[in-house]
Amino acid sequence: MHLDRNSEDDTAIRDEDAAIRSVLADGDPLARRTLRDALRSDGFAVVAEATSGREAVELCAFYRPDAVVMDANLPGMDGIEATRAIHQRVPTICIVLLASAPDDTLGLRALGAGAAGYLSKGVEPHLVPRAVRAALGGEAAISRRLAMTLVESYRRTSRGGSGLRPVRSELTDREWEVLDLLASGARTDDIARALVLSTETVRSHLKNLYRKLGVRSREEAVKEALRLRDPVL
Asked: Could you report the average pLDDT of every consecutive run of 10 residues in the chain (233 residues)?
């Protein structure tokens, strides 16, 4: 009997090792419990849970899970900024964000930050682990509507070159996002709304990118961005 128990324990350990290791991040305890149950019932191993974006980044850096399922509206550092930080530290982690309400603009930002999925919290809980598995398999875990928005965004990029990043650039991803909107004719307030930032933060980004590009106006910044993109067009 002793040998049989060891055999069962070894099997359990192997099963846990084979499970998809995941980190769950949501400030709502009930939402975390619902998602935890859904993931575990589908064979996932939930190795850690976070209540804020910063905590999610730290846990992912420590545990290096296969996937992280994260609320897009986390306190402090939001889900998109946390996604960017996680992707920069451990780009192999598959990140799926869950949003309280569909927002294609935020969805595009999430994908640009490194997320492999962006879904509404309105989806049935049992569909979340399926979406994560699909994302781990190389598919985009997004709605059909967001997929169409992504296609339209790509078409616009193909026509105008906006959104393309030079291989080497001093600008951060966020500064390029600001510059892309600037090139489209957006004003400071428009950029702030599109990127969900304060106008002061947008002005700070503008000041930094002007300095890095060596320009003094938005017109000069747009021209310099086009020049930097020439090698990849």
From this structure: 40 55 96 96 96 96 97 92 92 94 82 88 93 89 78 53 59 84 78 81 92 87 75 42
d(CA 178, CA 148): 23
Name the token pair of 104. Answer: 């294609």
Check: pTM over 0.70? Answer yes or no.
no
Residues 91, 8 share a domain: yes
Full DSSP string of the chain: -HHHHHHHHHHHHHHHHHSPEEEEE-S-HHHHHHHHHHHHHTT-EEEEEESSHHHHHHHHHHH--SEEEEESS-SSS-HHHHHHHHHHH-TTSEEEEEESS--HHHHHHHHHHT-SEEEETTS-TTHHHHHHHHHHTT--EE-HHHHHHHHHHHHHHHHH-TT---SS-SS-HHHHHHHHHHHTT--HHHHHHHHT--HHHHHHHHHHHHHHHT-SSHHHHHHHHHHHHGGG-
Q: Are residues 139 and 173 in the same domain?
A: no
User: Residue 178: which of 222, 228, 116 has the closest Cα?
Assistant: 222
**Range(s) of the domain holding residue 199:** 161-232
124 in the same domain as 48 = yes
